[in-house]
Structure formats: structure tokens, C-alpha cells
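Hey, resending since the last one bounced:
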Amino acid sequence: MSSAAPSTESSSATPPADSPAASENAEVVSRAATTGEEQSSETPKQQKQEGQPKLPKLTPAEFRGYNRLAEHMDLFHAHFRTAWNSLWATACAGNSAAGKAKSKTARERSVIGDGIAFVAQLEMHHDIEETYFFPVLARRMPEFRNDGKGGAGAAELLRQHREIHGGMEGLRSYLRACREGNQDLDMDVLKKQMESWGTVLWTHLDQEVKTLGAENMRKYWTVEEIRHIPM
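The C-alpha cells again:
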């Protein structure tokens, strides 16, 4: 989940789900979430119930501790915003004379490659979240709970993933067809492909970071527990 510009169909910023690093992270995350799990329904972090006193103001150090995951997530999301904006600007620029030529230009190949890489990296990001990150948070936080099917019973962030993936697959299929010469790259078509899921993507990028923010996380976790949740 790095903020470097995409260049291949896979991202080196996040470990593959079957890598030793990912497995080690999963074990550490599980231990962090299990700590105090028996008290999860009555912990001070869940003082959202009506009639309970307002939580005290956080010190700067406490805020940084509680906000740790939000800051890390926003770095990853900044990369995806940058990649999206670059591809969107290209699509909005329209078809150049060279772009309408039958043979693929260097520009066309670059657009196709960047678009496919963007989709692959976003897909990997979501896969790692749903495999290692969300299940731990979901033990205490309803905002990350899945119904096991990714359907209507899942939390909103999970439902957003499903909607985003539908748009990603459409964009990837189109760009692959262009790469293989089955279709000509048309910027108007590219723009329509992106428009179909752009709103939900940007909503999700902002909402996920906000959910991981200090004021929400303090309701469920201690600073020490958050420190042991790797990202």
C-alpha cells in the first residue's frame, strides 16, 4: 500500500496473502484482538451508549496512538487517489489524433498499463484488508463485520468493496481487450467505465480512514492494543 505510482499489475507495497510476512502479521493481529476479547461487550472503549459520560479530550500523544491506523491507511489511499486522478485526467483529455490510429502508440500502451496496474493494486489492497485486517477489527467493531457472503448483511465498508470490485472488473476487462487488440482504446469509453464506480470508490477511501480515526477507535481499543495491530 505505497503511494508510488503504479507500473505493474501487482503491488509490492503489501505482502501477498500467502507470504511469510502476511502470515506473521495475521498472527500478531489475532493476538492483539484476542487480548481482552471477553470484555469486548463492556469495555470503556464502547461508551457510545446513551447516558454515559462524554469521553475526555485526548492529549496529542494519545491522539497519535489512537489515530495510528487511520494515518497508515490514508497513505495507502493517497496512492490510489493519485493513480485514479491521473487516469481520469487522461480520459477527460479525449482522443488525440495519434490515439485514434489503429496501431497502439506509446501513450496508449502507457494508459492501458497504468490502468490495469491500478486495478490490480486496489484489488490486492482489498484482499489483504478482508483476509487479515477487517476480521480482527470486526471482533469489536460492527463497521468491519461481514455476513460471510459479502451481501446485504455485511457492514457498509464491505458492501462498498463489492460495488467497487464490480467497477474494477469492468475497467480491467476493457483495458485488457484494448491491450490484446480486440478493441481500440477510446477515452470516452474509458471515462464511462470510471464514472460507473468513481463515487463509491472516493466515498469508501474517505469513510474507511474516518472509521479508523482516533475518536472512533478509542471506543473499542486501547492505545497499546492498536500499537500491536500491524498494517
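The chain has a mean pLDDT of 82.

Sorry for the duplicate.
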